Amino acid sequence: MSFIKARELLRIAEMAKARYRGVSLRDIMSELSVNERTARRMARELEDLCPKVMITDDEDRRRWWKLTQVPLIDHRVVNEKELSALDLAIRRAVRDGAENEVVALQRVRDHLVASVPRPHARSAEVSSEIMMIANGFACRPGPAARIKQPHLETLFNAFIHPTMVEITYTSARDPETRTKLVEPHGVIVGPRHYLVARDALAGSDRRFKQYRLDRIIGMKGTANYFERDSDFDIETYCTFAFGSFFSDAEHRLVRWRFDPRAAPVARDYVFHPKQVMTDMDDGSLLVEFTASGWVEMAWHLMSWGNAVEVLEPHQLIDILDQVRRGEVEVLP
Could you tell me which CATH class the domain 242-324 is placed in? Predict the structure, then answer.
């Protein structure tokens, strides 16, 4: 095996270990600038080189190769401060339009994340996310609720250890102030930021719940350690909703059609991580995904005017009409 070929296979192995779902043929083609035939051959060579590689097919029939243990690259180390510094540097490079630096820094990041067991890597990634929020690099433009800086610092420390936090909280449905001891697992960033956590004193109820950070009156760290759910992933968790509203009753297939003049713009959007886009014969664009949060969808669709049509569900069609008439009394 030539040096270049070995280096390319090592790069694929690092991607397969560092990324949550692993690596796909499209990832290999993009990373190494090869065609699909070459990417398939390299994937087969990865299987030969790493017999323990896990191979899965997603709902769109795309194949993924995932590695959990690669002794050759396990000697590298990473901690949350190093990862945070890299993420901040990547954000600055993106902001400054330095494309070559973005690519180089992203490769360094993959090297580091691939060097540690997945639970430790995920902890570092979550901590890095909180660090970016605290430093103003993980916010989105537009209106957003204020976040108390001490709360972010408390969460940052809780994610690293991990330890429970005590929150004093007032919900929208219950004005009474309550104190809860929770096990923090992640943060949803948006116009309203949410802490995703489990109630430590709920007994057998181990469901994850969302707590709006702007409704948390007080927060303090504790010395109580807990075992983080190894199956929890914030990105997978967020795919259940369009925005921040989670509802089993609303969780169903959504289909939107953008007219030909809006299709080129809509095609560059990621409306949902698991969206499927289909170019129609008349030049329009069909967007399909499964999620909850119809009111938030209607708010977003308002920005597209008459350039988008909701095909289903029929409840979303009705809600969009009500929003346009100003009849939905739901605050952001």
Answer: alpha beta
Taking Cα atoms as reference points, which of 327, 311, 308 lies closest to residue 319? Answer: 327
Round to whole Å and give the CA distance between 332 and 323.
13
CA 36 from centroid of its chain's CA atoms:
27
Q: Quote the CA–CA distance of 224 and 272 in Å, as a whole number.
A: 36
The reported pTM is 0.55
Which CATH code of 3.30.460.10, 1.10.101.10, 1.10.10.10, 3.40.50.2300 fits the domain covering 3-73?
Answer: 1.10.10.10
Q: pLDDT, tens digit, for every residue of 224-236?
A: 999 888 888 887 8
| pLDDT tens digits along 37-66 | 999 999 998 888 887 888 998 888 889 999
Give residue 306's identity as a one-letter amino acid code: N
The encoded tokens of residue 81 equal 């401060």
N- to C-terminal Cα separation, the chain: 58
* Burial state string for 34-65 with b = 16 or more CB within 10 A and e = fewer than 16: beeeebeebbeebeebbeebeeeeeeeeeebb
Q: State how far Cα 289 lies from the chain centre.
A: 16
- Alpha-carbon gap, residue 126 to 115, rounded angstroms: 17
Q: What are the extents of the domains in the chain?
A: 3-73, 112-238, 242-324
